[in-house]
Amino acid sequence: MITALSLFSGVGGLDLAASALGIRVQLATDVDVEALQVLWRGLGTTTLAGDIGDLLTDGALAERWCEKDNPTLIFGGPPCTPFSHAGFWIDEKRNGKDPASALLGRFSQAVELFRPQAFLLENVPGLAFKTHRVTLDSFRTRMRQAGYTLTEQVLSAAAFSVPQRRRRLFVVGIMNGVAARLSEWPSFPTRSAGDALNGMTSSPAEPDEAIRGEYSDLLNRVPPGGNYLHFTERYGCDPPVFKNRGRYWSFLLKIDPALPAPTVPAQRVTYNGPFHWESRHLRVREIARLQGFPDGYPMAATRSVARRHLGNAVPPALGMAVLWRLLASLDLSDAVKPPVALEEWTDSSSSYASALRALGARAGLLSDVIG
Fold first, then answer.
1. Full-prediction pTM beyond 0.70?
2. Domain check: are 330 and 220 in the same one?
3. Which of the following is catalytic: 80, 127, 300, 323?
């Protein structure tokens, strides 16, 4: 049996991916109790809530790992806020001194403690920026000293039939000198945001989805796929409302239904998108679909919390792809032919709704409640 310890689990994007591939996630941890409750309701995974530093220091994590053998895998995505573009104007972030960046060291500590055959670390591409080089280099050095050969790759979820252009950095470490192949992938069909949100009759209007205020009328005039640049001199607006490069790219950004959506963030900002092409905020279940979570996957009761949980999650299909290559590197999966769960997901002959149902079935989804 292939077993896994899940760290910084959130609502379980990677856990869902692992379960769909037949990996037994024996324990999932996070400081967010509500996120772990969602994960437990969805997959029935045993969870352990608490600060990862405390869980490692007081021995609770080792004690709750009740298996005779160490996990085959450790995977997780430490909070990406310290390394993301969001809030990059804050000095401690721009200078690479956000205290939350220490969580990368906690991940290292867990790997050193359990000595899995392999690990998978997920984060935003900003972790590899010059600003954070010291943090990432420290992690690399520590893992190499622990005996792991590292492979890194930035991947877009859209390349794996996820209807969202979410880019993420993956660092894979494998014991005994084996390097994972993360750069050669089969060609999978692209799914559009329109495909993903088609027929969402189960997603009722939300009371806070309307855009109000001074720029609401401008959003109505932005074409699908456009943003605030529609009202600049560069795009022929006379007189211009905004200067070119005068706002963040996401300002008044609207999804084009014919293309994968831009990255959906964890926090809603009044005039920062991406917005639905109907000129409104995305609904929670729409965000879930753009991330690739099955319709029956449970959510937090509070919409703002559910949005945060989803925006922080790894798209399960992207996780499946990387975990497949990791397992293949351990001779636990075919190195050329994708596993059945990934083939079902990327089957161009099936609808997106069918792909979601197949993923939920493969993962053993417990909930069939939509809403």
1. yes
2. no
3. 80
